[in-house]
Amino acid sequence: MSATFNFFQHWYPILPVEDLAADRPISATLLGLPLVIWKPGNDSNYCAFLDRCPHRLAPLSEGRVDDQTGHLECCYHGWQFDATGACAKIPQTENSQLLEQKKEQIQAAALPTCEANDLFWVWPDPDTAELAAETPLPLSPKIDSSQGFVWSSYMRDLPYDWQTLVENVADPSHVPFAHHGVQGSRDRASPIPMEITELTPERMIAEVKRNFPTTITFEPPCRLEYDLTLGSPEKRVGLITYCIPLAPGKLRIVAQFARNFALRAHYLTPRWWEHIRIRHQVLDGDMMLLHCQENALAEEGNWKTAYNMPTNADRLVITFRKWFDQYCQSQLPWQRGANKVPEASAAEAPREVLLDRYHQHTQKCQSCQGALKRIHQLQSGTLVGIAGLILIIALLPDAYRLQIGLPLSAIAILSAVAWGWLRYRLEPQFHFVDYIHAER
Questions:
Q1: Which of 67, 72, 149, 229 matches a 20 to 30 Å C-alpha distance to 34?
Q2: 389 and 410 in one domain?
């Protein structure tokens, strides 16, 4: 590896495969590069292009997949592109040879892509496809059903920088406090005897020897994985996180949660329920802390003088920060693909923005989108049912008011309670839930 780490020549998992949309193009961002992800009508694989039409730079993600040709069509002037990025149609041309004559100038910039471990991967450098084919993906060995593991996938966009998340995930000592009652308990916090067992430019590994032996692996630029052994060597848990730099002050976490026990509970738990009851809460617990910490560090300027880290628990954080200083000059290469992207603002953002589950996750997650749609349908159906019950009760003859009207009234009341729970308790879980540490 060269002295400067090349963020653009690595594989990044943009989304879980189950959250891709087969019927329309979707937009994404990676290292400041706008991307469009789409599925050709005659292909089983998804494609990723730079999200700019070569005609007049309109976003291809606003277009559609043509029903007849299966090509990606720009919604501005109707230019179409096939899975390789070649321009297949220009409605305005009078020269039938134009597509071939101007082939290189009018093609969309296609990026290398692949699917593995239930994730959709993108290589953000369109000029090094051969290197991409030779570079192994940073996969977790625990995403493997043949070893007895089951797993679920999750993603969320977060309003802070890539290095802030890496530093946070590399720090196990914050869990009992920041995630008290969700993933740990502050009453059980204890020293963390951490030792760095491998340190190279390509990988750093930390071992934690205590009740639950843990191996923490960071494989730059994005894979940070916890391998925990619970009780016996046969019982293992994996927390696999991919920290994806989107733009200054914005990143995406793609996470997979693997285990080789409690298999029945995995299959019985809906994916969306796990997201709103567990995964969101974990990230919510860090949100205000990391936002304020990032702003404070920006004001101080240098982590070496701003931080005080005297215990072994901070050894992996220190190791990562030194790696970031040495190989990345303490910054990401936004200038290549994001010259126009403003620097992350140090202003305090409202809690409703920082903890905005809908725009950070729900609108991108197929499971949560579907659940929210069904919740809206249940609310409407419940209101119609209540109205119908009230009408029936009102039309009952006096002789049946007590015998029939009373049970129907009870059903109407229970239905109203159910509607209230759906509207005021469950639906907000997909939009915004405040997280106040002092109340936990």
A1: 67
A2: yes
